[in-house]
Specification:
Number of domains: 2
Radius of gyration: 22 Å
Largest sheet: 3 strands, mixed
Structural class: mainly alpha
Number of helices: 4
Strand content: 5-15%
Strand order of the largest sheet: 1-2-3
Helix content: 55-70%
Number of strands: 3
Oligomer: single chain
């Protein structure tokens, strides 16, 4: 269960989906509503947040299963390809400097 899979929680949700985990998107408003009515009086701590998100997911019909984002996967592959190309270019430049040094 991840709060806000289309916002701040998107990267985490997609990483978990990519690793084969079942991820549920808990809307932030729903989790906040549960947090307000909980014992902590709406204070936002990691432990209280986790409990609020879990309770919201168990007691609501507004929770959706998150699926992998093909666009995000493509961008990651492209980024890895660019990183490899940059590394190759830097290494070639270093080798050229070694052979052209006086």
């Amino acid at each position: 269960m991840v709060e806000g899979c289309h916002g701040a929680g998107r990267a985490l949700a997609q990483r978990l989906v990519g690793d084969g985990e079942l991820v549920l998107d808990v809307p932030a408003k729903l989790a906040a509503r549960v947090r307000v009515y909980s014992q902590g009086h709406g204070r936002k701590t990691d432990a209280d947040d986790a409990v609020s998100i879990g309770l919201a997911a168990l007691n609501s019909t507004g929770v959706a299963v998150v699926h992998g984002d093909d666009t995000l996967v493509s961008l990651r592959l492209l980024d890895a390809s660019v990183d490899a190309s940059v590394l190759d270019t830097v290494m070639l430049a270093m080798v050229a400097d070694i052979f052209t040094a006086p």
